[in-house]
Design brief:
This protein is an alpha/beta fold. The protein folds into two domains: about 220 residues, 3-Layer(bba) Sandwich (FAD/NAD(P)-binding domain); about 190 residues, D-Amino Acid Oxidase, Chain A, domain 2. The chain is built from twelve helices and 19 strands. Helix 1 runs parallel beside helix 6. It is globular, with a radius of gyration of 22 Å. InterPro entries: FAD-dep_OxRdtase, FAD/NAD-bd_sf. One of its GO terms (molecular function) is oxidoreductase activity. Pfam families: DAO (PF01266). This is Glycine/D-amino acid oxidase.
Length: about 425
């Protein structure tokens, strides 16, 4: 006997739950199919950060703005803060970034701390060297460098937001169902039903609408359906270090080292030259090390040379033994006192960043009756609400803003399409 589902959303991460919730808000009763526990893959392994600041990409900024506009009803459980992101590095590079992001608000330049608006909710504050060390005294060793403090930005509880979406979905008549998506069956060329494995049995579920939001499973699923879009998956890892002495200031914003660096001293490199896995990390590395306080410790993140996988077979990658130390060392230029934590064993986990070549999401129709929402590489938490709402509106024939159409998967079928590199440059 074939089961009938009004709307089937495959994937119980933040993106899938958001799409299902907003479909439910429009009168459907969606089912969310998830092989693992909900919110247990990439949604659970993220930095949980958000920012409106997307230099060079107005469409991504519009997507995040839409998400932030939709966040207030969930604020009690998501608990967003407004500490901002603080990029630290050479002034000319920071100013160039700011000038590429007019959407983020006015650029304010400060030669001294007296003009710095500590409680500003929005805008870009470029702190010249003297002002930087006055406003953030724990960066006092960074002579000659500046800081770019961007807001609105900060972090929130991805689990809190996800569970609120799930509870809201259930209140609207939707369901979360445990099972594995195997593919679709077509009639007359149109996808009519999904093949699903539940408790060892295969079933056919006919649907009115199918949304693929499989996270790291998306590349494999798209290939199986005959839509081999240019996706890759990158394992990214974060490390949580206990910090009872407060070496990472508890009041800090999300700190980002915006300069290339070498994380090993010459004598260390000499000792490690024979280590094949470490060899790529022994030379100059790109910017992007970042961290933030978390509970009685801090999160450290630095994935300077992520490898690419075409189609991950599992939900979560296994972190290399050195992932935590690499992340910690990446923060040394910002907070030299963290050197005392070398040898401390952190808690390390991570997820897959599924991405397109230009690091823009996939959002829109794949074929008649089938929609896709994914490739939210490194910004799924901050973009989930806006992306889910836009997909639901588009799928049900409502008006869709131009920024959402810019993410349609059909762009890769247009010979004239030239992917932009801006968003890819600013992925952390």
């Amino acid at each position: 006997m074939e089961r009938r589902v009004e709307a089937l959303v495959v994937g119980g991460g933040l993106a899938g739950l958001s799409a299902a919730y907003f479909l439910g808000r429009r009168g459907l009763r969606p089912w969310v199919l998830e092989r693992e526990a909900p919110l247990s893959c990439t949604s659970d392994k993220s930095t949980e950060a958000y920012r409106l600041f997307w230099p060079g990409d107005e469409d991504l900024a519009a997507l995040v703005r839409e998400s932030l506009d939709l966040l207030p009803p969930f604020a009690g459980v998501a608990r967003p803060n407004r500490r901002g992101y603080l990029y630290v590095g050479r002034l000319e590079a920071l100013e160039a970034m700011a000038l590429e992001a007019p959407h983020a608000g006015p650029l304010r330049v400060h030669r001294e701390a007296a003009t710095y608006p500590k409680e500003a909710a929005s805008g870009l504050d470029l702190l010249l060297p003297g002002a930087l060390v006055e406003v953030f005294p724990y960066l006092g060793h960074l002579r000659g460098l500046g800081g770019l403090h961007v807001r609105p930005a900060g972090w929130l509880s991805a689990q809190g937001l996800g569970m609120a979406l799930l509870e809201g979905l259930r209140a609207l008549g939707g369901r979360l169902v445990s099972g594995e998506f195997l593919g679709v069956e077509r009639e007359g060329g149109r996808a009519r039903s999904a093949r699903v494995r539940r408790e060892g049995r295969e079933e056919a579920w006919s649907f009115g609408l199918l949304v693929l939001a499989l996270g790291p499973g998306l590349p494999r699923a798209l290939r199986a359906l005959g839509h081999p879009l240019p996706l890759t998956a990158e394992p990214h890892f974060k490390a949580w270090f206990p910090d009872p002495e407060g070496r990472f200031p508890r009041e800090a914003p999300l700190l980002i080292w915006n300069e290339p660096q070498e994380i090993f001293a010459p004598e260390e490199r000499a000792l490690l030259e024979g280590e094949v896995e470490l060899a790529p990390l022994l030379g100059p590395l790109p910017p992007g090390a970042h961290g933030r306080p978390e509970g009685e410790g801090f999160l450290a993140l630095y994935n300077p040379l992520p490898r690419e996988e075409a189609a991950p077979s599992g939900c979560l990658p296994s972190p290399p033994l050195f992932a935590g130390e690499v992340a910690l060392r990446g923060l040394f230029p910002l907070l030299p006192r963290l050197r005392a934590l070398l040898g401390v064993r952190p808690r390390v986990d991570g997820g897959y960043y599924v991405r397109t070549p230009e690091n823009r999401p996939l959002l829109g129709p794949l074929e008649e009756g089938v929609w896709v929402l994914g490739a939210l590489s490194g910004y799924g938490v901050m973009a989930a609400l806006g992306a889910g709402n836009a997909l639901a509106a588009w799928a049900l024939g409502e008006g869709v803003p131009a920024w959402a159409r810019a993410f349609a998967p059909g762009r890769f079928l247009d010979p004239a399409y030239r992917p932009k590199a801006e968003a890819a440059r600013f992925q952390l």
